[in-house]
Task: inverse folding
């Protein structure tokens, strides 16, 4: 007799959280669940409410309505709110916010009791974060990446139930950002720490987090794995936000396919269940060169407008040579193996793999 899998332990549960600053609403009823030991990216454009939600979880801001649970209720409909220092939260701000007059060692152990500082906790964190040789330096003697590792070590010092990271890599230059991000996420996974990472960088969210919650206009637009958000976004707007997207008008047939005009009949990932007008999502890597076959059903002839060469692949911007209601003015195609094509070159493209579609909204 097989055993029923144990339900995942919830580290953070946010229910119906609303927050306004004066007459300006920011959060409109956010619901979010974060499982213990996972890294969740809170992704959204500027002004979507990401930092406000993080500050509500930390206790720096009080929600007007809604509850926040961190294993137990810490905020309840604006009536009962536990102070930030009693929530067992680790917080890593964008700039690290280290104390300039304290050494690395002192910064990490700042919030610890004398007994905790003596029991070797700071030395453990110095070793974990690769900062042992820098223990007596001051923040101005450190690189940006080293400062962020100090900030993380300080956030981990009191064994928090969850670590909140507010765009911690955005101030770093491009070359440094990837390595520092990799180091910090490896530390979080090694310690099994639950973390919520605020970011506006889609690539960062897709490549690092176990799950992604997209915050849009003060609400969670979708919460799922990177693949779920990329392959089956909830709507066309979300599709265009999470990665490059070709959005085409199509006719949904009701039998699990869509007629995309010159690109032919496309198989849907999930049947939209209705027939009629709709929108189809084709990711750039789904557009492939059709070889020597001429234009016809399922093959689109287009002219290269721009070619971005990255070595491992190439991103083409092409203009379809066939006019019609189905096609946008420009399409994006990602070709493997770094194919280089000059502007003005004619290419023939076809769609490979199933696509996502949405019925047109009811008028």
Result:
């Amino acid at each position: 007799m097989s055993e029923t899998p144990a339900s995942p332990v919830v580290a953070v549960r946010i229910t119906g959280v609303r927050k306004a600053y004066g007459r300006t609403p920011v959060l409109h009823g956010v619901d979010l669940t974060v499982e213990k030991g996972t890294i969740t990216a809170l992704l959204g454009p500027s002004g979507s409410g990401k930092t406000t939600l993080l500050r509500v979880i930390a206790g720096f801001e009080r929600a007007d309505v809604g509850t926040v649970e961190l294993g137990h209720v810490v905020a309840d409909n604006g009536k009962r709110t536990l102070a930030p220092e009693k929530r067992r939260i680790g917080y890593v701000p964008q700039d690290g916010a280290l104390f300039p007059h304290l050494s690395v060692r002192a910064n990490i152990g700042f919030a610890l009791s004398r007994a905790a500082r003596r029991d070797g906790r700071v030395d453990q964190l110095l070793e974990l974060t690769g900062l042992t040789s820098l223990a007596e330096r001051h923040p101005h003697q450190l690189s940006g990446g080293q400062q962020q590792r100090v900030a993380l070590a300080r956030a981990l010092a009191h064994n928090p139930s969850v670590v909140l990271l507010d765009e911690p890599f955005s101030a770093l230059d491009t070359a440094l950002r990837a390595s520092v991000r990799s180091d910090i996420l490896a530390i979080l996974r090694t310690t099994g720490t639950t973390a919520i990472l605020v970011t506006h960088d889609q690539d960062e969210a897709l490549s690092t987090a176990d799950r992604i919650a997209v915050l849009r206009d003060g609400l969670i637009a979708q919460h799922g794995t990177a693949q779920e958000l990329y392959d089956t976004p909830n709507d066309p707007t979300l599709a265009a936000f999470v990665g490059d997207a070709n959005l085409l008008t199509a006719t949904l047939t009701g039998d699990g396919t869509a007629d995309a005009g010159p690109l032919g009949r496309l198989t849907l990932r999930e049947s939209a269940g209705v027939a009629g007008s709709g929108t189809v999502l084709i990711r750039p890597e789904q557009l492939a060169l059709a070889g020597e076959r001429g234009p016809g059903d399922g093959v689109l002839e287009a002219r290269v407008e721009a070619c971005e060469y990255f070595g491992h692949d190439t991103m083409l911007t092409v203009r379809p040579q066939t006019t019609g209601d189905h096609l946008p003015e420009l399409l994006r195609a990602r070709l493997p193996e770094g194919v280089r094509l000059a502007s003005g070159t004619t290419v023939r493209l076809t769609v490979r793999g199933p696509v996502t579609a949405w019925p047109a909204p009811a008028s």
About this structure: The chain has a mean pLDDT of 90.
